[in-house]
Amino acid sequence: MYMIDIIGADALIDLSGVVAAFSIKGIGIATVVVSIIGLLIGLFLGLAAKKLEVPVDEIEAKVRELLPGANCGGCGYAGCDACAKAIAIGEAAADVCPVASSDIHAEIAAVMGSNIEASERMVAYVNCAGTCDKAKSNSTYYGPKDCKLAAGVGGNGSKACSYGCIGFGSCVKVCAFDAIHVIDGIAVVDKEKCTGCTMCSAECPIDIIEMIPKKARTQVTCSSNDKGKDVKTVCSIGCIGCKLCVKACEYDAIHVEDNLAKVDYSKCVNCGACVKVCPVKVIMEQPA
Fold it and tell me: On the chain, which terminus has fewer CB atoms closer than 10 Å, C or N?
């Protein structure tokens, strides 16, 4: 019995050695197989990447690097990437980005192999002076403070003038440059911060935000096309279409169209003659 146990133990030891040998051999085979599979996958991915590689337009990349990255959409394209592509293929002008400076425009033009003259800087201007003490109310508005919603329910907030700034700040919310704020019931633009991206103008539901040259100092701060009598009923500073400004201007730079005075900035020299004769003081002269 004792001898059998000894023999069984020796056999067990020999068997465990065989199992261990097979285990080591199995691990080695598995390692080799996994390595080969990994190598094949790597080669496949490398070939696929080469095959599916999208060629990079060097000009587009250089233009994109020069663009400010605001992604404001003021250029009319869906962000700076789309703008860079449009410039690179000649679809858009080198100065299409309203946020970039004239120096950046010149650099982009150089990348495109062309020259560009410095374009006139445009900024937003709110054509309304109907502050809380000047514009009259004809109702009490209850609802979300959003210009589009207020205009959508068939009113103009609480203001009696249907052309006046609603003053709920939808334009403020879309400005990425902190260049427009509601002050005393109307939106006011800081032209030093304004980049001319046009986002506020596009957002305004009653279209009273105009893009004008930054150097312009004379503005008609009204948008009403109503007759003078009707304007005075709802606002003490609205344009009454009297045409005194037209008569005072020596440069043919201001005209009354549809009961509203409009400045032609291509002719205006900022002489201030129209400002002086305006009886309701709706034509204002801004600091340079």
Answer: N
